[in-house]
Amino acid sequence: MLKLPKAVKELAELLSNLPTLGPRQATRLAIHLSSKGKDFAPNLSRALLSVGNIKECSLCFNLHEESGNICGICSDKNRDSSTIMVLEKETDLMSMENAGVFGGTYFLLGLVPKTGILEIEQKQRLESLKERLSNLPGNRAKEIILAFNATPHGEFAAELFARELKDLSSKFSRLGRGLPTGGEIEFADADTLAGSLDRRK
Predict the structure, then answer these.
(1) Domain annotation covers residue 181
(2) Which one of 17, 46, 178, 181 is at 20 to 30 Å from 65 when CA atoms are compared?
(3) What is the spatial distance between Cα 56 and Cα 77, in angstroms, rounded to a whole number?
(4) Cβ atoms within 10 Å of 50's Cβ, excluding its own
(5) In Å, what is the CA distance from 156 to each residue of 16, 50, 160, 162, 164?
(6) Are residues 87 and 186 part of one domain?
(7) CA distance 190 to 111
(8) Is 1 within the bounds of a domain?
């Protein structure tokens, strides 16, 4: 029976912990990386070590490289800190921010499980958001935009958030038409996101 070299096998086992990568895909990727030549490994190693220095913003949980604990978006005085968009993941935030259509701040919940039930880390983030909202002028947000993907578990999460935060915001809204049912924010273009934001309700 043909066996993989030990180093390739160990790399595959590490890669299999990544989202969407099962054992077979991880093994293929490990073999591919191993075939890139000896100059590639040190560069990959340096990049991975650099990623280890990335921090989570203490307010929105987005990744950042700022010197303090707060990211550049949350610390930007030109943004409306009382209008907060709640998203699932970093790539959703990147898509919305790159579209250039939103001038408020963000909050990342993390991937919503298909069960719709929040995990421990997400519950902790929700409590952090409650504290953040209570420190705003008037002890509440002007508007919270629940920008979850148009999927059943996204809908469930939006209802849960609206219920949990009902006393901490003057208004709740959802992205409007433009984002199709089952569609994901991450893959929407700027015009679609702009239309969804304009038609929020």
Answers:
(1) yes
(2) 17
(3) 19
(4) 10
(5) 29, 37, 6, 10, 12
(6) yes
(7) 22
(8) no
What is the residue range of 109's domain? 56-198
Which phi and psi (to 5°) does residue 57 adopt? Answer: -65, 135
Q: Are strands 63-64 and 55-56 parallel, antiparallel or unpaired?
A: antiparallel
- Cα torsion 66, 68, 71, 73: sign: negative
Type of residue found at 120: I
Distances (CA, A) of 187 to 73, 105, 131, 149: 22, 20, 31, 11
Angle, alpha carbons 187-192-198 (nearest 5°): 135
If you compute the radius of gyration of the chain from its CA atoms, what whole number of angstroms results? 20
Who's near 28: CB < 8 A, 6+ residues apart? none
Instruction: Please report, for residues 19, 35, 41, 156, the alpha-carbon distance to residue 7 in angstroms, rounded to integers and kept in the order given.
Output: 21, 12, 12, 43
SS3 category, 19: coil
Place of tokens 């949990």: 164
d(Cα 6, Cα 105) in Å, to the nearest integer?
46
Please state the φ and ψ torsions of residue 41, each to the nearest 5 degrees.
Answer: -60, -45
Up-side HSE of residue 67: CA atoms within 13 Å toward CB? 0
**pLDDT-based confidence at 34, cuts 50/70/90?**
confident
What pLDDT score does 150 carry?
74
Tell me the whole-structure pTM to 2 decimals: 0.75
Q: How many distinct structural domains can be found in the chain? A: 2
Q: What is the pLDDT of residues 45-104, one digit of tens each?
A: 888 888 778 899 999 999 998 888 999 999 999 999 999 999 988 999 998 899 888 999
